[in-house]
Amino acid sequence: xxxxxxxxxxxxxxxxxxxxxxxxxxxxxxxxxxxxxxxxxxxxxxxxxxxxxxxxxxxxxxxxxxxxxxxxxxxxxxxxxxxxxxxxxxxxxxxxxxxxxxxxxxxxxxxxxxxxxxxxxxxxxxxxxxxxxxxxxxxxxxxxxxxxxxxxxxxxxxxxxxxxxxxxxxxxxxxxxxxxxxxxxxxxxxxxxxxxxxxxxxxxxxxxxxxxxxxxxxxxxxxxxxxxxxxxxxxxxxxxxxxxxxxxxxxxxxxx
Length: 256
Hints:
It contains nine helices and no strands. The protein is mostly helical. 39% of the residues are buried.
């Protein structure tokens, strides 16, 4: 995992953390905006795949096909991100820029179409959102070594629970036989532990996703589909950072 690898510098860890936290807020906002705009969540596929099975069992073929198309759109997005990152893997910087830019352009197109057709129930809006989330999920999966996801929080919340127990075990084992003084000493050392760093990252991911889920609808209620400008702006900021001379994110994906 890049975040915990001893070969990754502190600056690269910070860049990696910034990337995944901002992308979690993007996923949260897109997911919430999509729900209020068209009544469907588009950033995670568990429910959509379950819908396919449920609709098939009830003989609702059109609804099953609709839910299946969302899953297919997400899959195509993941494939797109993988191809773009493979093409750019030899670059010193800008390795993620193309995938981030395609995601931003897709969401911008969705927002613009919805803005000009506010009453139309166009399925391509859902397909575009799911496609963009597939791009993002594949990008973060590659960056994190298949450890972190930003488009759904089930695994993140699970990891928080696991890491909290590991933190308590680390403190208990280190303090065993040293009394209260040993316990306090281990608690003071806790911020330096790998378990603490991972817990902090996952708590940050959950918080960022929640902030996106809150900010997205607030903007949508105020500005309508133009609210999609917020996640697009975040993605464009990440593109600029990725293309900067410092190459903020280049060291993170080395070897992927």
